[in-house]
Inverse folding.
């Protein structure tokens, strides 16, 4: 399902750390056909493109300064923010500890009749 959320807290946003996190995700779930990202240099580097090419994953950039252009990620962010407020998570430490549960709750929510968790794992 394209609505299944995978997450990893990264302490640095270098191309190498992002590639490492993606490798772990790809080894568990397989690579996506398309990876949509913003226009950040670390996501559009030749190293990142080469890595994604090796998995047959196409890199697409969302429109700069136009969050509505990323119609998949923005609703996820809004939902996670809403869940964090609902659970009264205010500090980064609280959020980091609760993130696995918030992602699980998100993945169990139905999206067009079936939850992403069900779509992925049955």
């Amino acid at each position: 399902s394209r609505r299944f959320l995978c997450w990893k807290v990264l302490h640095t946003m270098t191309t190498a750390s992002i590639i490492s996190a993606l490798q772990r995700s790809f080894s568990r779930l397989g690579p996506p056909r398309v990876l949509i990202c913003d226009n950040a240099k670390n996501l559009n580097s030749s190293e990142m493109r080469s890595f994604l090419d090796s998995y047959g994953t196409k890199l697409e950039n969302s429109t700069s300064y136009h969050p509505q252009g990323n119609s998949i990620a923005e609703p996820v962010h809004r939902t996670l923010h809403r869940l964090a407020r609902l659970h009264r998570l205010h500090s980064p430490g609280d959020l980091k500890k609760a993130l696995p549960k918030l992602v699980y709750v998100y993945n169990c929510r139905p999206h067009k009749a079936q939850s992403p968790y069900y779509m992925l794992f049955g």
